[in-house]
Amino acid sequence: MKNKPEPSNYDSLADQFINYLVVEKGLSDNTIASYSSDLALYLDFLTSHGIIDIAASDTAVILKHLIELRNRGLGPRSRARHLVTLRGFYRFLVQEKVTDTNPAKLVDLPKGGRKLPDVLKIEDISLLLDTPEVAKPLDVRNAAMLELLYAAGLRVSELVKLCIIDVNLEACFVRVLGKGSKERVVPIGQTARKKIDLYIKSARRILLKAKLSPYLFVTHSAKPMTRQGYWKILKQTALKAGFSQDITPHTLRHSFATHLLERGADLRSVQVMLGHADISTTQIYTHVALEKLKAVHTQCHPRG
Hints:
With 304 residues, the protein is mainly alpha-helical. The protein is 57% helix and 4% strand. The chain folds into 2 domains: 10-106, DNA polymerase, domain 1, CATH 1.10.150; 122-300, Intergrase catalytic core (hpI Integrase, Chain A, Orthogonal Bundle).
């Protein structure tokens, strides 16, 4: 690979990129100033995280930078502008044969100022997940549902539609029917496995009252749990845990993805676990692929 930069040669790369924008792109002074400011923040981020070779950066690194910008108070539009800068910068590096790929191409942000869901810190997640008591059958069910929501990054609609046959506790995964009737398999970790196992062996039998149901999570009248019903339970649990902010099921889903990425999971594995890839189970979930996903989940998930 030609023109590979010397370690920490970021100033030179930045100068080359800005010169390229001025000479070949003819951008306005204000746009050039914005690009320069955004790029300086990103290169400082790389240096502060010990990344001294631009070729060592990847999509996960860019995501972490954008997450840090959000945590510092930058809104969606400002973060989107940063992403545009990074896409242009990496496109320039590929053009100059400094790097082989543009990792910013895989990153997307909400359009039109949509607000990203809040992300809970890992310690706050632990506080929330440990709040439900297990004295009553409904408590055992609620604890299992909450743990599974975060363990697998499920949508609330996916959580309440889970059937008993969709759960494989021996292999530690759940089979999920997502948007567009697309099926995926997601590892769940040991903590979720234990809580679900306790629920199935004790509370679920009591709630069913000798009735039969294909659904995993049922109410005290043996009916399947509803989305609205679970939203109320989560809200009550969050208040009991002492949270003042609004915590929704999607808060846990977004926290799931963010925590995995922050702890070193690769983006493609997280995309598969979230069900964002347009692929069917029969095409992607070979034994090797599933074992890889389980290994990533066990290594990177805080409660795996």
